[in-house]
Amino acid sequence: MTTTLRVSPSTAVIPVHAVWGAAAGLVGGVGMGIWMSVSRPMTDTAMITMVAGLLGSTNAFAGWLIHLSIALFAGITFGALLGQFAQRLASAVVLGLAYGAVWWTVGALWIMPANLGMPVFEWNDVTSSSLGAHLVFGLLAGLTFSLVARTAGKQTGRTTG
Question: What's the CA gap between 125 and 23, in Å, rounded?
Answer without folding.
Answer: 30
